[in-house]
Design a protein that fits this description.
extended, mainly alpha, about 60% helix, about 10% strand, 2 domains, Alpha-Beta Plaits, Transmembrane protein, transmembrane helix, about 120 residues, three-stranded antiparallel beta sheet, 3 strands
Length: about 120
């Protein structure tokens, strides 16, 4: 029975391409399912042979650890260079958007809490 190696929902194209190449490089047989027309399934990368699952899982764990380390290093470099998107930077760049978003969040929270406050009194 086939095993799902990677669900492709919210996976960047470069990551999916790297996973495909990694599996080909290590001779792990995979196949891919495409996303459904209605967005119910995002598609995935599947293992053809169950016997490959432990080896493929170990490869994926190492790959994801390496990719995570690279992403954290890029974030630290961007913070050090002052080019990272932070709350303060977004507030300076788009103040109306940030204020409107915060007000919207307060309105939604108020509407959720309103019945409890009315029943309490």
């Amino acid at each position: 029975m086939a095993k799902l190696l990677l669900n492709l929902r919210n996976v960047p194209d470069d990551e999916a391409d790297e996973v495909r190449a990694l599996m080909r490089e290590h001779l792990v047989q995979i196949y891919e399912t495409r996303p459904s027309n209605w967005g119910i399934s995002a598609g995935g990368i599947w293992l053809s042979d169950d016997a490959d699952h432990p080896r493929a899982k170990a490869l994926m764990d190492a790959y994801q650890a390496q990719r995570g380390a690279v992403a954290r290093a890029q974030r630290q470099d961007a913070l050090a260079a002052g080019t990272a998107e932070t709350f303060g930077a977004l507030l300076r760049k788009r103040p109306l958007f940030v204020i409107a978003t915060l007000i919207g969040m307060l309105v939604v929270a108020s509407l959720v809490l309103l019945p409890f406050l009315l029943l309490r009194g």
